[in-house]
Amino acid sequence: MRNGLRVLLFFYLSAGAVQAGPKANILFITIDDLNDWIGCLGGHPQAKTPNIDALARRGVLFTNAHCQAPICNPSRVSFMTGLRPSSSGIYLNNHHFRKSPVTRNAVTLPQHLKAHGYTTYGVGKLFHGSYIDRPSFSTYGPNPGQGPLANPRVTENPSRSKLWDWGRFPPSKEEAHDFQDAEWAIEVLQADRESPFFLGVGFYRPHVPFYAPPEWFEAFPLDEVQLPRVRADDRDDIPPFALELTHNALPPSQAWFVESGQWKKTVQAYLACTYFVDHCVGRVVDALAAGAHADDTWIVLLTDHGFFLGEKARWAKQSLWERAAKTPLIIVPPKAAGAGYARGRRCSRPVELLSLYPTLTALCGVPARKGVEGRSIERLLKNPEADWPYPAITTYRQNNHAVRSEHY
Question: Where would a tag sit more exposed on the chain, N or C end, judged by fewer CB atoms within 10 A?
């Protein structure tokens, strides 16, 4: 009798496994250098991001999310591999993760999904420098880099880097690489497919150069542009080491932006870039909504870190202040996920981009990857007010950390 019960139990469990639905798909959208200047986060009163705002109304908007490194390469390596910079040893942009003895054989999030039956697609900047990690992706689209670039510069300035430029460029949206990457992603979403998919779409703007087609500047008349609030004495009480740690020689100085009259023009350009990339996001999301996988695809939208535009008398990122460490994060559950997940909610708990790896594998029913350091935030997707005693930690260069709780 006991053996008979075992047989019945085996067939019951087997039938349950067979009847389980197909794995969910993932649309994974990354945006480069976007801070909280989006409508739903209220970081700038003139920000225009209707498509990103619409996503926030459909899912959970994490208002206290933080990157693990306030600079492109280590941030992306961290959320793609599930390792903190202090574990990988990758702190700056010149450390290629496949050449590091620690991460040479790391299994990335898309690579792990690929090993469990997913077809993985990528386009644009997912890893720093548009590096295509072949083990991670079944197919990769165009990766045209930071472009197109104007020659000569649109705006003459003292920066040594040709990336520090801003203005109306290129003449049409069709020439912009973000638009082209969106078009490729749309083709992927429109194609018929049987296996579950992961589609990573990496948009460059508003990363420097602050280029957007002319029509996106029209929404921000220069004489109406509002500058961020800046305290003249904001850095007077920090020690020399902190000043050295946050120094960035590439952008022009805050004094130059003020004295040259370019500060308002760069803020205008950043807002235009954000408006333009929101348009590209909207095109991709609309293509998903019009396709066969609208009801079984999780949408994740994040940025790799924030960005300064004169606050604390500095530009770019590369600091442990919240302007650089804080990042927009939105996760939208599909209809197939059921009523157990929150929709149209805000979560103020401190979360890390590091959590995306274990969260998405859990949501897709894929086995957890051993050694991943992030903590799944699935419980917050179900209840944004759930107990969450964990802080978010951001690291810049070795042994320098910022710790963020919900209130401090």
Answer: N
Taking the whole predicted model, whether its pTM rises above 0.85 is answered as yes
> For residue 194, what pLDDT is reported?
83
**324 Cβ neighbours under 8 A, 6+ residues apart:** 70, 305, 306, 307, 308, 317, 318
| Per-residue model confidence as pLDDT tens digits over 181-204 | 999 999 999 998 888 999 999 999
Instruction: Determine which one of 44, 66, 112, 128 is catalytic.
Output: 128
DSSP conformation letters of 310-370: SGGG-EES-SSSHHHHB--EEEE--GGG-TTS--SEEE-S-EEGGGHHHHHHHHTTPPPPT
The answer to which of 3-17, 95-109, 308-322 has the lowest mean pLDDT is: 3-17
Band (pLDDT 50/70/90 cuts) for residue 130 is confident
Q: What is the mean pLDDT of the chain?
A: 93
**Separation CA 305–CA 115 (nearest Å):** 29
Active-site annotation holder among 40, 66, 67, 72:
72
Residue 376 and residue 109: Cα distance in Å, rounded? Answer: 13
Q: Say if strands 65-66 and 60-62 run parallel, antiparallel, or are unpaired.
A: unpaired
Is residue 72 annotated as part of the catalytic site, yes or no?
Answer: yes
